[in-house]
Design a protein that fits this description.
Number of helices: 9
Shape: globular
CATH class of the largest domain: Alpha Beta
Structural class: alpha/beta
Bound molecules: adenosine-5'-diphosphate, magnesium ion
Strand order of the largest sheet: 6-7-8-3-9-10
Length: 247
């Protein structure tokens, strides 16, 4: 039984197809990574799942609900998803605590006291106790991204979408963010992530998907995809990654 089923999804921008019939199933607790060159469609696919983009063809079903049905309630869908981007997108004028409790209070109608208690628990779990009253610009990039991940978790999503969440960070700050994602996996969170950190991708993924020009060219367990890729394009991409020192 899959949690998310993407079936024949096409997405066009200005007459140009950037997703060309994507099929993908994600099981509960599975970690699926999307890899591929810049422009291959990874972010667009995540944005389609989160309804930040509408699809031109195909269906996406989350937990029995067809997201691509035009009658779907977008807010209800987004309530069940957590998404984190490369740029942390924290509200600069709000404290860490207010950033984290905003959606639970406003969207999910969680009482203030309970929302704040949950926020404090999450901050403690991810090593940020003591930062509740800080403003984003008082934190390092790694800390800000950890807060952004906590903020996405605060609404108890059934699926987390992580789009290059370490790409904007200095190398020494990447590790602490990857550690959070590891902890999320260990706690059973279902995730789809895109990353340039191939070592981490190999380590954390149950399934790795290689996208090439909007086509999901190859997918499999990390050992298979990294050690015995079937498609010449996958081999070429992995060679270029090794070359650039990212593996
Ligand atoms: P990736 O995340 O793999 O780098 P993207 O999904 O961001 O790739 O982009 C895939 C293609 O879609 C690229 O050619 C990009 O220029 C194009 N694209 C993405 N978003 C838009 C948009 N809002 N309008 C027009 N073209 C877009
Ligand atoms: Mg992208």
């Amino acid at each position: 039984m899959s949690l998310l089923t993407i079936d024949g999804v096409w997405k066009n921008f200005h007459g140009h197809s950037v997703l060309k019939g994507i099929d993908l199933e994600v099981r509960p607790h599975e970690v699926v990574s999307l890899i591929g060159a810049s422009g291959s469609g990874k972010s667009t696919l995540l944005r389609c799942v989160n309804l930040l983009e509408t699809v031109d063809d195909g269906t996406i079903v989350l937990d029995g609900v067809e997201l691509t049905d035009p009658r779907v309630n977008v807010d209800d869908v987004r309530k069940r998803l957590g998404i984190v981007f490369q740029s942390f997108n924290l509200f600069p004028h709000m404290t860490v605590l207010d950033n984290i409790t905003l959606a639970p209070r406003r969207v999910h109608k969680v009482p203030k006291e309970r929302a704040e208690q949950q926020a404090h628990e999450l901050l403690a779990r991810f090593g940020l106790e003591g930062k509740a009253r800080a403003y984003p610009d008082q934190l390092s990039g790694g800390q800000q991204q950890r807060v952004a991940i906590i903020r996405a978790l605060a609404t108890q999503p059934v699926l987390m979408l992580l789009d290059e969440v370490t790409s904007a960070l200095d190398p020494q700050l990447v590790t602490e963010v990857l550690a959070i994602i590891r902890e999320l996996k260990d706690s059973g969170m279902t995730m789809i992530l895109t990353t340039h950190e191939m070592g981490f991708c190999r380590d954390i993924s149950d399934t790795v998907c290689f996208l090439d020009g909007g086509v999901l060219l190859e997918k499999g367990p990390p050992e298979q995809l990294f050690d015995a890729p079937e498609h010449p394009r996958t081999r070429e991409f992995l060679r270029s990654v090794v070359h650039s020192g990212r593996f």
